[in-house]
Write a structure and sequence with these properties.
This protein has 116 residues and is mainly α. Helix content is 50%, strand content 9%. The chain contains four helices and two strands. Helix 1 packs across helix 4. The radius of gyration is 18 Å and the shape is flat.
Amino acid sequence: MASPQPTASDTDTDPLRRHLVSSGLAGDVATTVDNCLDNIGRLLAGRAGYTFGLSDWKRATFDDVVAAMRAAGGRPDGPANAAGGAFIDPDAALGAIAHQRSVLTRLRTAGTGRVL
């Protein structure tokens, strides 16, 4: 009986997933939840370096930013776990990377747009 063939997602993302997790860029990360929550406050205060180029941060509330972090795959838990490490969902990170790859490929193929 032939062994199953790996799927495209297995061969394309497994090495990247392992790298993201082993380097602490996804999975359990060293950044504490407390630090994430502090960074949300810095973003909302408009501190340079914490707005990540977002133009609509001025209208965001604390809850809006926490919801955006959760939607992006992060887990900014409440104060009970504030001293512990945060978590970034590896699948969400891989999805975001794939999305950006797709956007850049479309720009390159169309010969339009600029990436700064």
